[in-house]
Design goal:
CATH class: Alpha Beta
Shape: globular
Radius of gyration: 21 Å
Number of domains: 1
Mean pLDDT: 92
Strand content: 5-15%
Strand order of the largest sheet: 3-2-1-4-5-6-7
CATH topology: Rossmann fold
Low-confidence stretches: none
Number of helices: 9
Distance between the termini: 30 Å
Length: 286
């Protein structure tokens, strides 16, 4: 027995099987849910990188339905960003859209600064921006592509977090988008998989680092999901069968992934940090 452990409740014991009524304190088993399933994020400001389309858009729309105000950072897809902004506002939320290349550190700092200037707070940070290119031969994987992949996928995640953390209060949370490829690899997406593995390790490390500040850090690791990134990454033939090799035999939809972010952002996940959810069509990963 470790006698150095701090006591967090009175010493006690019971005969098996034990009775809840005799426990000190009595376990709280009442559902810890809002009176309404809606508005679980009421008044919270959420920053979503890559929030203009795909998983980011679905998450922005769902969060707005739950009462959040949204900040979307995106590269240059203005039409997509405006459409997402309109959807957020139709749900009653405010939406700030910021065109910025987050592979540049200063742009990440600028997004955080603009959020604070507009809303005065950040409650939820979702690091979701990503790029990928197929390469089946490491000899043809250029250093330029490697650096661009890491700068967009991982460095932006690090920099957005770096500049947001000073503004996060107890109860805030960070959710990073990693990937099933971080767990099982991908022979044709070596740099992408490596960047997503870095995000996974960063998530676990940051969760431990911030836990005493009351800030939770988790991740979502999607499998194949039907997003613009897919249509712009693969050949027409590959796109036509994308996701068919999952146990469910299909790619997921962004609105099947967004609820993972909602759960991790809500008070229902108050005892969860350093963990990963796996909306991947049934693939078992470690």
């Amino acid at each position: 027995m470790n006698t150095d452990k701090k006591k967090v409740r009175p010493p006690q014991t019971q005969d098996k099987p034990g009775q809840e009524a005799l426990m000190q304190p009595v376990p709280d088993s009442s559902p810890d849910l809002p009176q309404s399933r809606r508005k679980r994020l009421n008044g919270k400001v959420t920053v979503i990188s890559g929030g203009d389309s795909g998983i980011g858009r679905a998450t922005a729309k769902l969060f707005a339905e739950e009462g959040a105000d949204i900040v979307i950072a995106y590269l240059d897809e203005n039409d997509d960003a405006l459409e997402t902004k309109s959807a957020v506002e139709q749900s009653g939320g405010q939406c700030l859209i910021i065109a910025a290349d987050l592979s540049d550190e200063q742009n990440c700092a600028n997004v955080v600064e603009a959020t604070m200037k507009t809303f005065g707070r950040i409650d939820i940070l979702i690091n979701n921006a990503a790029v990928q290119w197929e390469t089946d031969d490491i000899g043809r994987l250029s250093t330029e592509q490697l650096m661009k992949t890491f700068a967009t996928n991982f460095y932006s995640c690090f920099w957005m977090t770096k500049y947001a953390v000073p503004h996060l209060k107890r109860g805030a949370c960070i959710i990073n988008t990693t990937s099933v490829t971080a767990f099982r690899g991908s022979p044709r997406l070596m740099d992408y998989s490596a960047s997503k593995g870095a995000i996974l390790a960063f998530t676990r490390s940051l969760a431990i680092n911030l836990i005493k500040k009351g800030i939770r850090v988790n991740a979502v690791a999607p499998g194949p999901v039907w997003t613009p990134l897919i249509a712009s990454s693969f050949t027409p033939e590959e796109v036509s069968v994308f996701g068919s090799d999952t146990p469910m035999g299909r790619a997921g939809q962004p609105n099947e992934v967004a609820p993972c972010f909602l759960f991790l952002a809500s008070d229902e996940a108050s005892y969860i940090s350093g963990q990963v959810l796996h909306p991947n069509g049934g693939e078992i990963v470690a």
